[in-house]
Amino acid sequence: MAKNLEKPVLNALSSNQKNERKLNFLERIYLPEIFKGLWYTFKQMFQPRFTMNYPEEKWTPPAIFRGRPVLVEDHGKERCVACGLCARACPPLAISMQASETEDEKERFPDFFEINMLRCIYCGYCEEVCPEEAIVMSKDYDIVFESREDAVYDKERLLVPKEDLEERLEYLKTYKNTQFGNFWDFQEENNIHSVRDRDTDWNTGLSLVDMIKTQDKNDAAPASKTWK
Amino acid sequence: MKVTDINSRVNPQFQEKHQRSIYKSLEDKHTTIEDVDIDDPLNAKMILNMGPQHPATHGVLRLVLQLRGETIEKTKLDIGYLHRGVEKIAENKTYQEFMPYTDRMDYLSPYSNNVALCLAVEKIASVEVPDRAQYIRMIGCELARMSSHLLWLGTMVMDAGAISFFIWTFREREKIYDIMDQIAGHRFTVSHSRIGGVANDLTSDASAIIKEFITKFPQELKDWHGLLDRNRIFIDRNENVGVLETDKALDIGATGPVLRASGFAVDQRIITPYSKYDEVEFEVPTRLEGDNLARYFVRMEEMKESIRIIQQCLDKMPKGPIRSNNAKHAYPSKDEVYYSMEGMIHDFMMTDTGICPPAGAECYHAVESPKGELGYYIQSDGTGHPWRIKINTPSFRNLQVLENILDGEMVADTVVVIGGVDPVMGEADK
User: Fold this and answer.
1) Contact B340 A5 (CB under 8 A)
2) C or N: which end of chain B has fewer Cβ atoms within 10 Å?
3) Measuring CA to CA, which residue among B393, B418, B225 is closest to residue B304?
4) Which residues of chain B have a CB within 8 Å of the CB of A181?
5) A45 in contact with chain B, both atoms CB, cutoff 8 A
6) Side-chain half-sphere CA neighbours of B179 within 13 A
């Protein structure tokens, strides 16, 4: 098993290994090295600027970004049925809720729903386990509070209309919802109680996308000019 | 003057018992007490406390140095300032819940830590991982290795006196963070690996940005070689500094690049290939000198090999699923959760109970993290929580080396040697 524990071996990958500790006269007097360093530093001035003037210029995160978790608001009310799974999955125990009953077909709703943003570590587990797609990660990343009480977000502050979360929902549909085993043909009627599927105009239904086709396209994506 | 009764001269205000025992152990360390001429300032002895708030100790490492003039006679390390009881927290979490905590251990290469935990759990619970997920993990691990080595390069060269170098390595590191953002959704605390696979597939943006990085990065690496390899000051500061002799390296417990710079090509990717490392070609660079300069060459060449591995992973990556399809081993897909009763039950069961390895099972699995061998030892009692997790972290082992190689060096070389060993205190203290 151990291929080379018995005796030490030299395995240098550079061709110049023999001389890497011996300097010639020019290198010993150091002057050329100074100019080499200065030249490299000088060249950096003409590189495109890499930083951003943060508060004035704001970074727009991609759809994959896990920002502040929010509750999805569908037709003026939350999709959440207060099953408590996100609170169970949350590693730092940031979420708390109380279930209550409603006349609506979904039968349950959260009486209160709180996320302590001081505890939240933005891991995205709440989104990953939610059986109703009721809590998703948004793009908000600069969250400030003036007091500790202020950091406990209630339902009012957590609810975001689904229209504003379109990009994230689309991302989830393409990359997170797809089956990775057998492609079963599910009946959408199986889930008539879910608020998620009532809106027929809004395409939230079954996302049996052709995974292989997406992967083919993505893996073949050419290198892009992101950093100039 | 004999430095024999340090304890009578100090007056610790904080954790007195611990402080006194540190000074006592410094006093007791391989010592031959001799009389020194007290009037000669070059011979004066002195106890120097460096850290835990010293910027050059890379975190909250405290060194207690006994100096004679400018020479370090002996050293004791004091660690534990960043102890958070991660191993104990793990006992109260399911394996899945514990995963984000591993991000915060070696915070310079979170991806390797995620993968290390997941591989250990997969080994103890015999979970099959799809090939595509393994290749995605390898790409993430190699990017994490480069990111960690870039931070080492910037700070180590800065410790040796070249300040602006830091900015250039951090610019490249920033690009790796952008890539991590596109792969996992976060720049720093990625939490991307899952038991049984990975959280999500590579998006088109992610593959484009990775490809761009691996075509551009070798040129930067070449420029840096050009700047440092023949630089007299850099070589003078690093050559024969902090030498770890080859015959001592294994006994002392060195690991990772520190061990490879002393001549042993010990690399978990070769010795016990995990994921798909047996299907890609790469070299393990070694040197025989064991000094700081050798560590520099080893790490620089490792970065080059990482590029090679990523290139091969992108070429070889198959199409297909990215998570295990066994509902007892991994989360079901969201389509199953939304539209089938079984899927929803599995979702609840995986969250509440989690994956249950057989009762009494135990396993150790190590990966080659950027700092060295990172191993998780798990004991299971058959529930979804680990009975005990012990984490074998490379920084902790390399700090052991640091304590021994500092003896006899000059005090000005301390920061360079710390930089060369590259410890991360989040990982050493756990």
Assistant:
1) no
2) N
3) B225
4) 321, 325, 333
5) no
6) 27
CB contacts < 8 A (A, B): 235
From the list B168, B122, B3, the residue with the least C-alpha distance to B74 is B3
Which of A141, A215, A216 is the best mutation test for B, with the most CBs of B within 10 A?
A215
Using an 8 Å CB-CB cutoff, list chain B residues near A61. 181
Question: ipTM surpassing 0.85, yes or no?
Answer: no
Contacts of B85 (CB under 8 A, 6+ apart): B430
Angle, CA B133 vertex, CA B131 and CA B135 arms, to 5°: 70
Write down the H helix ranges in A7-107.
Answer: 25-29, 31-44, 85-89
Q: 3-state class of B418 per DSSP?
A: helix
- Yes or no: say if A28 and B232 are a contact pair by the CB < 8 Å rule: yes
- Contact assignment for A206 to B207 by CB distance below 8 Å: no
Q: DSSP string spanning A154-188?
A: -HHHHEEEGGGGHHHHHHIIIIISS-SS------G
Residue A128 at interface with chain B, using a CB cutoff of 8 Å: yes
Q: B199: which chain A residues are within 8 Å (Cβ-Cβ)?
A: 124, 128, 176
- Calpha distance B57→B61 (Å, rounded): 6
| Surface of A (193-222) touching B: CB under 8 A | 194, 196-197, 206-208, 211-212, 214-222
Task: Give the tens place of pLDDT for each residue, B5-54.
Answer: 777 777 888 888 888 888 887 877 655 555 556 667 667 777 788 878 87
Q: How many residues does chain B have?
A: 430
Q: What is the DSSP string of B375-390?
A: EEEEEE-SSSSEEEEE
pLDDT in tens, B232-262: 888 888 888 888 888 888 888 899 899 989 8
Hey, are the CB atoms on A40 and B239 less than 8 Å from each other?
Answer: no
Q: pLDDT tens across B128-159, in order?
A: 898 889 999 999 999 999 999 999 999 888 88
- Could you tell me the two tokens for A219? 């893996």
Q: Provide the whole-model pTM.
A: 0.86
Q: What is the pLDDT of residues B370-395, one digit of tens each?
A: 998 999 999 999 888 999 999 999 99
Q: Do A206 and B335 touch (CB under 8 A)?
A: yes
Residues of chain A with pLDDT under 70: 1-6, 179-193, 197-212, 228
Q: Do the chains contact at A218 and B206, CB–CB below 8 Å? A: yes
Closest CA of chain B from A202, distance in Å: 16
Count CA within 13 A, CB hemisphere, residue B121: 32
* Residues of chain B neighbouring A195 (CB-CB closer than 8 A): none
- In chain B the first and final C-alpha atoms are separated, in Å, by 40
- Residue A99's SS3 state is strand
Torsion of CA B303, B305, B310, B314, to 10 degrees: 150
In angstroms, rounded to a whole number, what is the distance separating the alpha carbons of residues B176 and B170? 10
Tally of CB atoms within 10 A around B305: 19
- In the DSSP assignment, the letter for residue B144 is H
B-contacting residues in A 144-183 (Cβ below 8 Å): 172, 175-182
